[in-house]
Inverse folding.
């Protein structure tokens, strides 16, 4: 499988705190990679370095390199806005803007200069279809995005991320605030989307990682302990700590 | 023995309960009584202009000549109403953009410096007595306008500028609170789609906090509307509708403070001043209702 994201010797500090220690891994294209590990192990931190959302936290310092495609995303000539357009993100809490469903999806394209109504209409429909939300909302696109259910809001956020045509979709515990049925829908959606997008998800839920991902990375205290095909990591882990974690002995 | 101890404890609790309840009831009762009696007093005095002195309300609200001691006395309050509204709105027009920018600076751009230095400094403005504002306005702003524009320098522009400084803390504080209360997820969501900081401010932060920002403006206007002393010192106090911002004018408040000492209780002139007070009071209620309505909207 083709490698899309290549992380080499990444160290990240929040002030004095050494949050990520010498992380190296490669994330394959058009597949789902899951980050698992106990709270505070650095999995979300690593995810947020991939679209440089950590830039906004004062006192963050990074060493090492991350390449997405053939760009060093922490290189001096990189435009963060362009990077974030290529590497979309869905958050733990559904965070639709207090605008209409249509305007939520059209927000990204409008930012990047698309103003013609027919183009926007097309993008909105396509994105909502991709996020498996179109049939539910097509008759009330003008309604406030806050009026739909939490699960629908999260799929709307996925549609919103897809509308700017990213290569990568980062999902930061995107189902942890949702009920089981909505969670299942998002998982199915991720399965469909992986044919077109590279998906990296952080999850608290090992079963979710086992169900949906192709590769799994196990983090502990800022280090990557083990990185393997999901099937292998869960059935035959090489590291004792991985085995302890997946068998529920801690975390 | 044990039983009697229990009973005693219980009755003590009951007393405390009772005392607390009665005490709060008395306080609330007094408060309500004060408000109602004030409204009643102002209204009875103010309305007697129409009922007792036979002034036509239409004349009062549309008349442009104020000559209460003239022959016949004329009670045209329109110049004051126009003066009050135009100074307050002018003040809001000046203060609102400044307040928003200050709030954006404090919350979004430089939180550390903003929260520690800028915000306290702006809030300090709220504590300065209005006579000081008036004095500064009279000694700095009025001569400044006099040098640049035709006229005495006294007028709506001077009043509006002085008021804008006075209401700046109100608008800034409310805007700062509103921006700070914005859920972090909204901004992150916008950044994650590749928006710049200013795109996020224009497209997400300002529209989402708009009702709260408007609340701040309306509260600022309400404060400016009721301010008497500072305005009176710089506006010139000519009872006519000015044709320029730099021409002497009057407001409802300045008209009341200027003449109230020179009238006798119960005369038509005195009652007419109460009518002006009633207009002020009613407008304040209107502002409060607008604020309530905006707050309800901002919760949805």
């Amino acid at each position: 499988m083709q490698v899309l994201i290549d992380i080499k010797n990444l160290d990240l500090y929040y002030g004095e705190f050494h949050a990520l220690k010498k992380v190296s891994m490669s994330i394959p294209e058009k597949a789902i990679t899951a980050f698992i590990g106990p709270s505070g192990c650095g999995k979300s931190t690593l995810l947020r370095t991939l679209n440089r959302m950590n830039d906004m936290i004062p006192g963050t310092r990074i060493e090492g390199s991350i390449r997405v495609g053939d760009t060093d995303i922490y290189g001096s000539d990189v435009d963060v806005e362009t990077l974030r357009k290529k590497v979309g993100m869905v958050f733990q809490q559904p965070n639709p803007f207090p605008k209409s469903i249509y305007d939520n999806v059209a927000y990204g394209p409008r930012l990047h200069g698309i103003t013609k109504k027919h183009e926007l209409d097309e993008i909105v429909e396509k994105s909502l279809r991709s996020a498996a939300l179109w049939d539910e909302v097509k008759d009330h696109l003008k309604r406030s995005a806050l009026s739909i259910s939490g699960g629908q809001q999260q799929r709307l956020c996925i549609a919103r991320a897809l509308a700017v045509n990213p290569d990568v979709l980062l999902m930061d515990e995107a189902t942890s605030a949702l009920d089981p049925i909505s969670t299942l829908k998002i998982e199915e959606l991720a399965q469909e989307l992986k044919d077109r997008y590279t998906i990296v998800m952080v999850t608290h839920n090992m079963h979710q990682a086992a169900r949906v991902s192709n590769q799994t990375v196990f983090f502990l205290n800022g280090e990557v302990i083990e990185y393997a095909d999901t099937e292998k990591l869960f059935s035959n882990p090489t590291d004792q700590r991985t085995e302890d974690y997946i068998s529920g002995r801690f975390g | 023995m044990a039983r009697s101890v229990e009973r005693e404890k219980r009755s003590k609790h009951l007393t405390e309960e009772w005392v607390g309840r009665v005490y709060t009831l008395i306080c609330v009762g007094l408060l309500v009584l004060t408000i109602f009696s004030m409204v009643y007093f102002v209204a009875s005095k103010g309305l007697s202009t129409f009922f007792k002195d036979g002034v036509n309300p239409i004349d009062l609200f549309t008349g442009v000549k104020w000559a209460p001691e003239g022959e016949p006395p004329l009670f045209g309050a329109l110049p004051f109403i126009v003066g009050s509204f135009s100074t307050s709105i002018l003040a809001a027009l000046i203060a609102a953009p400044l307040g928003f920018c200050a709030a954006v600076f404090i919350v979004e751009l430089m939180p550390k410096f903003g929260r520690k230095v800028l915000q306290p400094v702006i809030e300090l403005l709220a504590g300065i007595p209005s006579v000081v504002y008036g004095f500064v306005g009279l000694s700095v702003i009025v001569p400044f306008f006099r040098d640049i524009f035709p006229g005495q320098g006294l007028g709506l522009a001077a009043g509006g500028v002085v008021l804008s400084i006075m209401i700046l803390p109100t608008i800034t504080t409310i805007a700062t609170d509103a921006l700070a209360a914005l859920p972090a997820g909204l901004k992150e969501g916008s950044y994650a789609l590749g928006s710049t900081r200013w795109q996020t401010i224009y497209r997400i932060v300002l529209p989402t906090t708009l009702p709260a920002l408007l609340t701040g403006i309306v509260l600022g206007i309400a404060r400016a509307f009721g301010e008497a002393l500072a305005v009176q010192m710089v506006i010139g106090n000519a009872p006519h509708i000015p044709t320029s911002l730099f021409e002497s004018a009057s407001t409802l408040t300045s008209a009341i403070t200027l003449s109230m000492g020179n009238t006798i209780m119960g005369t038509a002139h005195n009652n007419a001043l109460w009518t002006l007070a009633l207009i002020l009071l009613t407008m304040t209620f209107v502002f409060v209702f607008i604020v309530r309505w905006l707050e309800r909207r901002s919760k949805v």
Q: What stands out?
A: Residues 182 and 208 of chain B are 8 Å apart (CA to CA). Chain B has one domain: 77-266+280-299. The mean pLDDT of chain B is 89.
